Amino acid sequence: MDLGLKGRKAIVCAASKGLGRACAEALAAEGVDLLITARGADQLESTADDIRHSTGATVATLAGDVTTREGRAAILAAMPDPDILVNNAGGPPPGDFRDWDEAAWEKALGANMIAPIMLIRAVVDGMAARRFGRIVNITSGAVKAPIPALGLSNGARTGLTGFIAGLSRQVARNGVTINNLLPGHFATDRLKTTFAAEAARTGRPVAEVMAEAEAANPTGRIGRPDEFGRACAFLCSVHAGFIVGQNILMDGGRFPGTM
């Protein structure tokens, strides 16, 4: 299927690895010109080279922190008029809410709620004026089923979800769609870190923790990042103009709800 994206321009945040990289790769394969961002310059440049080599796409890079005003200003200066914005940032650490002070909450909200809202604020009116825009926010399956140890993420990402529910309906008639992709377990560095922490906490081998997670999933496996990336690319496509304000859970069916 031709997604109708050739020649479009996209900002993909936190795209040097993991799910952000997978989204960038899938968009590049559709002929999208990319600006990819991440904090680590070396990994970012390596990723950009890989994508250029595998797809032939135009890929610009910008090393910086999207959670800061300065980082966002630099991104918007480099690509002020994107057709596509993929918001993404690393999640806050796990823990007990009794140990989180106000600064911890401010940091979590800044990264996983305020930063994406500020980028959306900067680009959405231009998208509406051009009568085409696609915004995809990578959030978390925890929005659907809160994870007790991830209270900071539960709160910040759910706040973003509520904001998007309202805004997405306001801009849809101008050809702009805003949706959220909610990942479950995907084979990324962050998941490896999570499994390692669980293994250390329980005194079990990491392989056993991973096998347990695979067995608990209806698919019997962990998700592949390329699956996630292709779903993101479809949401950005010309065929997804009637998908508005949705929270699309990609967890292999692990969440047991009817809706």
Report what the structure shows.
By secondary structure, this protein is an alpha/beta fold. The chain has eight helices and seven strands. A seven-stranded parallel beta sheet has the order 3-2-1-4-5-6-7, sandwiched between helices. Helix 2 (41-55) links the parallel strand 2 (33-38) and strand 3. The mean pLDDT is 96.
**E-strand count:** 7
Gyration radius, in Å: 18 Å
Number of DSSP helices?
Answer: 8
Helix-strand pattern, N to C?
EHEHEHEHEHEHHHE
Q: Looking at the structure, what is the overall shape? A: globular
Low-confidence stretches: none
The overall pLDDT, averaged over residues, is 96
Structural class: alpha/beta
Instruction: Please indicate the percent range of residues in DSSP E strands (runs of 2 or more).
Output: 5-15%
Tell me about the largest β-sheet.
7 strands, parallel
- Spatial sequence of strands, sheet with the most strands: 3-2-1-4-5-6-7
Helix content: 40-55%
Give the distance, in angstroms, between the N- and C-terminal Cα atoms: 28 Å
Which features would summarize this protein structure in a list?
259 residues, 8 helices
Short structural summary:
The protein has 259 residues and is α/β, with parallel strands linked by helices. It has 8 helices and 7 strands, in the order βαβαβαβαβαβαααβ. β5, α5 (151-171) and β6 (176-183) form a beta-alpha-beta unit.
Layout of helices and strands, plus pairs?
Layout (H helix, E strand, L loop, with lengths): L8 E4 L5 H12 L3 E6 L2 H15 L3 E5 L5 H10 L5 E4 L14 H29 L2 E6 L12 H21 L4 E8 L5 H14 L3 H11 L8 H11 L11 E4 L9
Parallel strand pairs: 1-2, 1-4, 2-3, 4-5, 5-6, 6-7
